[in-house]
Amino acid sequence: MSRNFILFATSNDIVAEIRKTVSNVGYCIVRGLNLGNFGETERNQKLFDFLSQLGKLTNHKNDDELKSTFWDIKYRGDDYASNNDITFSEDVGECPLHSDSSFSENPEQYLVMYVVKTANDGGNSLFLKSSDIVKELSKTDIGSQYLHILTNNQYPFKTPKSFDDKQGVIWGNILSANTPMIRFRDDCLYKGISENQEKVTQEMLDALDYLVNLIKNSNDIQEFSAQDDDLIIVDNANGLHARTDYTDKSRHYIRARISI
Ligand SMILES: [Fe+2]
């Protein structure tokens, strides 16, 4: 595997390198931040200062608290798991390819994850470029027809309960005709469709089913692994991400999202 996606925090022009690498490859790792020995507050402040060079970090509660900007991706414990409707970020195991904030009006450009502790049995990152999905769809007549449907119709994305109690639906294109933009999370889409069946045609549903299958079986999915103290930066506008399976309950990442 090419290692050109690994950048070093000591580089003079690290911010420009991050932008360029994420734009070309779809993701990068910044290595050597040396934040592993700081306490949580100081580490998150340093992460905030570093990441603010890339854009505006999403604060999920619109307050000034760092804890509303950085989210622990970590198993929450057996008690919590048995008493709550837990999300992928609160559980171990694999997670399917998706883009973050697909149910928001303006999904962020970057997803970032700081690695506190890797899993000892997997939990690698996966990435699939939207341009590879479009290329694959365009190879066949039926794929091209479905691509046309996917770019020319608004689909309903249901907001997950864990994100917003009000659970609204937003309508958006899964793929864009003029840019490599992709907005995709299949559980939100299928929930949105089940509540809006009268507004979704059979051909829209067929196109989505075809896309879901193509994404799952794509040969273009890239896999990469990180190490403790790495900062992973992923293109959330032009690609999908996922993680491979693992069972290690001590795996700990910290997530933030950045708009440019
Ligand atoms: Fe995600």
Keywords summarizing the entry:
binds fe (ii) ion; 260 residues; single chain; globular; Double-stranded beta-helix; 2 domains; seven-stranded mixed beta sheet; 29% helix; alpha+beta; four-stranded antiparallel beta sheet
First and last CA, distance = 29 Å
* Sheet of most strands: 7 strands, mixed
Listed once per kind, the bound small molecules are:
fe (ii) ion
Q: What's the CATH first level of the largest domain?
A: Alpha Beta
Report the uncertain regions.
none
Strand coverage percent? 15-25%
Order of helices and strands: EHEHEEHEEEHHEEHHEEEE
Structural class: alpha+beta
Mean pLDDT: 94
Rg estimate, integer Å: 18 Å
Integer count of domains = 2
Share of helical residues? 25-40%
CATH topology of the largest domain: Double-stranded beta-helix
Assigned CATH superfamily of the largest domain = Clavaminate synthase-like
List the helices and strands and how they pair.
Layout (H helix, E strand, L loop, with lengths): L5 E3 L5 H12 L1 E5 L8 H12 L4 E2 L13 E4 L3 H6 L11 E4 L11 E8 L7 E5 H8 L3 H12 L2 E4 L10 E4 L13 H10 L6 H15 L5 E3 L6 E5 L3 E5 L8 E8 L1
Parallel strand pairs: 1-2
Antiparallel strand pairs: 2-11, 3-13, 4-13, 5-12, 6-11, 6-13, 7-10, 7-12, 8-9
Helix pairs in contact: 5-7
